Amino acid sequence: MVKNKNIGGHSNRSSTCKTKKASSKVANSKDLTLLDDPVDSDIPAVPPELQITGQGQLGLPDKVYLLASAIFQNNHLEKPAAHRLVSYGKERGVPLPEVKDEEMQRTAYELAFNTLKYQELLEDIMIDSCFYLTQPMPDDQMSLVAVMLHDFQDRKFLPRERQGDEIIQEVRDVENYLLKFKTKLAASLARCRIKHDLVSIECILPESVKTKQERSSSLPLYAWVNTLKSSLDEVQGVLKSAGFSQVKSIGELEGQTFCQDPHCGDILVFPAQLKAQLYSTKLLSDHKLIIQDKSCSLGPNAMCSVSPEEGDVLMVGCFSGLTVAHTASLIAEKHKANSKSQPTVYVCVSDRTDAQREDLQKAVSAMGCKNVKLIPEVFQSLDSSDKRLQKVHIIVLTPKCSVSAVSNPVEYILQENGDTDLLQDLSQGSIAQSKLEALVAQQRKDIDHALKFPKVLAVVYSTCSSYPEENEEVVNRALEQAKARSEQEGEPKQANFRLSPSLFKYPDNAEGPEETDPFFMLEPSEQSNGCFLAVLTRESEPVVTEAPQEVLARANAKGILDRIGSNQPIRKEHHGHTNRMAKAAISRASQPHISVSLQYKHQETKSSSSTTLCGHQEFTNRRQLSQGKPKTLRLQTIKNPVSSPFSSSKQESSCSSSPKPENSTPTKSTTTTTNLRSAPPLATPVVRPRRAQQEVLKPVVLVLPPVHFPNFFPPQHSRTGFSPSFSYSKWRNPSQTVPLSRSSGGLSRDTLMKSRPLF
């Protein structure tokens, strides 16, 4: 008789896994004690509670066991020598046998992953049953023993039914050894369950692993519509004609039904067991409907939402050909109106093998995508000077992550070209700190490099991790690094990036972050896997609003106004001169019998037609005065297209408009002269409001009421036929214009006497 060995305890066990009849089982445990003879017919082959019939008897092909053993060998947990019960040899990283069938490959990975989950339990069974000590098998074959033992106990220790598949002698030898020891192996398993009060062996798993395992069996199928091959309406029509009925939400999925995803409009959701029915519609075989996890479709949909009217897309990270095809189809659909300039989707494939690149290209071609190009270089070696990336405005970054938010990691890793080295950590429910730090370091490098492209307008960052170190912390740190780098290098503000608000809305009945939350996170549940999404957009160039005074001061500092006019005063001088003119006008209010024409500069030349027009204006003013009309201040503003407001030639144009009849009344000029309406009397001068913007100074002519001097006019027999006052205006020489005395603020008597004509 072999003594029962103590089996190490397991943590995180559920209380529901404890049986109420533990005491009775312990009492009867002596009936399960094994004999040294593995083929003793007196011992029941399988305990009564483990015996089943008609289930799991087919087993798996030999090549699946061989592939699963190689995967387990490369990923198993290697314990320290002092605590090592079973040795699997020193060799790791063994090459995987070639299995072309995708379904067989997935089955082998699932078997290896489940074996990793129960590695400690399986080792205890091999030691307790003396299988490991009595069988003459080398250590490097113990990986094959582990995976076949797990499948053996999963089939309730019933022999598999061979179907004439390829025979691998190594596999058959291990199978024969297990069949000889099936009684002792089954009894050892029963003792382990009794010792730990386990209703089933799943109860020995950590709680997080057990929860994911339960969810994985009920996850619905997500499939996106390939718009390059079909449309959403067409696919829905085919499904309804095949007997499918559409429901409103995922919670209502039952039987042969489907619904539309609440976040992505091009995704349809089906119950998990309808995969075979979907193949019968030929939608999957015709590549019109593509089954893919929802977490892989959120990134392409976010990219399509922020993509500009023009520009290419660069994809970097860990993804499959399905994700590339989805991105390319969305871009092509958005820009289908512009057939001449279709955006290109560039894909970095530096970490792919030649076979993986070929598979990716085949998948993209099968989807009907013609706008995809592969880039073999490493992403870190690419920069903005690359000619291929001159039009890239969006970068979709899906880095390698821990896949800790995925309930079915094996299926996800295989479909999305994930890292199989994470299988051992995922089988235990947590990622080793060293592996997590390595993943975060690479994620930081990728996102930092993506933010360095000056023409990139947005970066879409997506993971399937539940660790903040891979999600929010990576993004926030990248934004801080980019801002510090731009400030250090003196880049403009628009070189910085900011977090864009979440592009996906949560359903009304779902609990999620506020709509202003820049991060979009889905927690793993029975309805979907978890994921994280962030969109970083480049800040637009700020609109600087400057006051007119600031614009003028900046222009003066740069010498811009000097080129406009050398005689143009600065703003303060102009206001000072205007104030002096206003004071002079007010001081003349006490002398209503003086008529003076004020000008900024003396005119050099004046034609006879301009003299006539100006004289006609003065005559009209005098006639209004003689009729008893109030004395007003006549203000004329001359439009001056020349920069300098003190140009004398433009002042001449104010009086040289088109010829008019002699008896006509002066009107507003449509080309050179703008006459403002009469101002109030001089006793109450009007102060015009200050303009909001700086304007070019313009010449102004102020006409005051006339003053009569004795013997001032010539006799009435003037040849012009006009009144004496009007004839005087015609005789007056331009040089006789009365200047304004700036020192006194008015007109001096000497100046008036000098300007008086002599007859």
UniProtKB/TrEMBL annotation:
Residues 641-675 have a biased composition (Low complexity). Residues 211-539 form the SAM-dependent MTase RsmB/NOP-type domain. SUPFAM superfamilies: S-adenosyl-L-methionine-dependent methyltransferases. S-adenosyl-L-methionine binds at residue 351. GO terms for molecular function: methyltransferase activity; RNA binding. The active site is at 464 (nucleophile). GO terms for biological process: methylation. Keywords: Methyltransferase, RNA-binding, S-adenosyl-L-methionine, Transferase. InterPro entries: MeTrfase_RsmB-F_NOP2_dom, NSUN5_7_fdxn-like, NSUN7, SAM-dependent_MTases_sf. Residues 602-614, 622-640, 731-746 have a biased composition (Polar residues). Residues 1-24, 602-690, 731-759 are annotated as: Disordered. Belongs to the class I-like SAM-binding methyltransferase superfamily. RsmB/NOP family. This is Methyltransferase NSUN7. It comes from Lates calcarifer (Barramundi).
